[in-house]
Amino acid sequence: METTDANGVNGTHPVHSFSPKLSSVPQGDFIRHSRKTNGSGVQADDTRICVVMVGLPARGKSLIAQKAVRYLHWLSIKAKVFNVGQYRRTATPNPSAEFFDTSNPEGERLRRAAAEAAVADMVKWFKERQGLIAFLDATNSTKDRRRWIQERCDQDNIETLFVESKCDDEDLIMSNILEVKTTSPDYVGQDPEVAAQDFRNRIRNYEKVYQTIDEDESDLTYVKLINVGHQVIINRIQDYLQSRVVYYLMNLHIKPRSIWLSRHGESNFNLSGQIGGDADISERGELYARRLPELVAQSAGDTKLTIWTSTLKRTIQTARFLPFEKLEWKALDELDSGVCDGMTYGEIEEKYPEDFKARDDDKYNYRYLGGESYRDVVIRLEPIIMELERSENILIVTHQAILRCIYAYFMNVPQERSPWMEVPLHTLIKLTPKAYKTEEERMPAKIPAVSTFREKGSSAKHQEKEEGGD
Ligand code: SIN
Predict the structure, then answer these.
(1) Which of these, 220, 222, 251, 339, is most buried using a 10 Å CB contact count?
(2) DSSP character for 228?
(3) pLDDT over threshold 60, residue 28
(4) Third-level CATH fold of 44-250
(5) Domain 259-467: which topology?
(6) Is pLDDT at 460 greater than 50 in this prediction?
(7) 3-class secondary-structure state, position 153
């Protein structure tokens, strides 16, 4: 990826890094002022950012916005998409392309009203302190429209970060058009070919007035993503949270692809009910390892995959028959259970009863003595998520807690639920990110295994499962 930093080139507006909390400085005006003038001393909690999407239809704006919100939620940062199309649909649910022609005054009026309603709700959302980052998902394709949004946000001390998705890769545009015609609420119940043609005409109407972000707007904070993943132009990034969003966007691509997830085959520790360790896979785990290539072929066809495992024996042994390039990641090792490593849940409850209860009370935040919490795991998995976003078709063979965290990222599972999700052994999961949601398929190998799922409050030994599948 080629990265151009417009600030770095002229050196007048350096990208600022996050400064530690200014505990001795009174909050309020000083902090607000300093954000505007020097970009330092900003506390994440004090920041409000409106990320304004810019671009023609079918340039992946909704996908980018949805993904970024999922990522921020995963990092415990409250964020929300305000989609102007959704507001417009209350008055005009199924418009034809003419509605988007700028010489159609009624269409213009209704579209402006939808944008105003979305911005008003967004400002209210910030005022009620419901979140830190809002994504205004619309074309915002003219300079006038962008200036209006910026001035409106300024009135309420909301920072703006414009994100333009420019794309001339015909294959990418086509695949977006195909997806929109089958999934957009605008075309529900319509013939897919008629829908695709109408959508192309809609794009043409937008093209007539579209203005890319250029030098006239050099006072704006913006990122231009050119053919998402190929080139990035960054201008006037002002603080830590903005740079965090930009860093994520820089790693994205929107080519169609899937991600496959599997736990290792049943291990000898699974059989004895012990947690952690570096045990070999059991005989049934070995059967799963041998079955996995067939299961993957059924699901992925001829697609070439790359296999990621942890550095622990049970994942490497499970993946060893897969006919693809393999990469071992320390970051994919199982959650570190510290002093409890190698113990059964029964032993932990007996030896550390208070800790056992504390973990049940708040499993996401509980950190094993000398080990990790789920929250710690999410932090160590961030580079994995970035690399996953940059990659195409990947199969990850890993461990229960790690898989829960990766799955939670793709499926937007809240923190209070993710550590309690059941992710069975001997099951291949396929995730396919789409514009509006991630599709999921589960393929049980039908090879028996114990269930390592532990319900809240239970210290029972792992139970035998008939099918080892779901
Ligand atoms: C829409 O009405 O679908 C979106 C309006 C826009 O972003 O221009």
Answers:
(1) 222
(2) T
(3) no
(4) Rossmann fold (3.40.50)
(5) Rossmann fold (3.40.50)
(6) yes
(7) helix
- Above 90 in pLDDT, residue 295? yes
- Which residue matches tokens 């605008």? 186
Q: Do domains 44-250 and 259-467 have the same CATH topology?
A: yes
Is 264 in the active site?
yes
Distances (CA, A) of 101 to 111, 198, 210: 11, 12, 12
Mean local confidence (pLDDT), 284-305:
98
The average confidence (pLDDT) of the chain is 88
Instruction: Please state at what angle helix 105-127 crosses helix 84-91, rounded to 10 degrees.
Output: 130
Each domain of the chain, given as residue ranges in start order, spans: 44-250, 259-467
Instruction: Tell me how far apart the alpha carbons of residues 10 and 106 are, in angstroms, rounded to a whole number.
Output: 44
d(CA 285, CA 280): 9
Among this protein's residues, is 334 annotated catalytic?
yes
| Ligand 1 atom having least distance to the Cα of 83 | 4
Question: Per the structure block, which two tokens stand in for 30?
Answer: 């000083």
Whether the CB of 145 sits within 6 Å of ligand 1: no
- For 346-368, the DSSP string reads HHHHHH-HHHHHHHHHSTTT---
Mutate to test the pocket of ligand 1, among 52, 59, 88 (most ligand atoms within 8 A of CB): 88
Residue 461: predicted pLDDT = 59
Evaluate: CB of 139 within 6 angstroms of ligand 1. Answer: yes
Letter for the amino acid at 379?
I
Q: Which of 186, 333, 334, 336 is catalytic?
A: 334
Q: What is the pTM (predicted TM-score) of this model? A: 0.86
The first and second tokens of residue 218, run together, are 């050099």
Q: How many CB atoms lie within 10 A of CB 10?
A: 9
Using one digit for the tens of pLDDT, what is the confidence trace for 349-371? 999 999 999 999 999 999 999 99
Q: Work out the percent of the chain whose per-residue pLDDT is above 70.
A: 88
Q: Which atom of ligand 1 is nearest to the CA of 137?
A: 7
